[in-house]
Amino acid sequence: IREPPIQNRKGRPRNKRLTGALEGPAQGGGARAAARNGGRKCGLCREVGHTAPRCPLNQNIP
């Protein structure tokens, strides 16, 4: 008798959460890829060090 095939679960994996700037270093390697690349990358300007909501190019001021 063979084991049943492994099924991928829906949703984002729990251990891949990106840590915030105030949380300090990642515990357990959840954000290793971001740390290797120098930090988070902005989705608008593609620069490292900030994300799209805090981007200086973002003109949407609340």
From TrEMBL:
It comes from the Eukaryota. InterPro entries: Znf_CCHC_sf. Residues 1-37 are annotated as: Disordered. One of its GO terms (molecular function) is nucleic acid binding. Keywords: mRNA processing. GO terms for biological process: mRNA processing. This is CCHC-type domain-containing protein. It comes from Crepidotus variabilis.
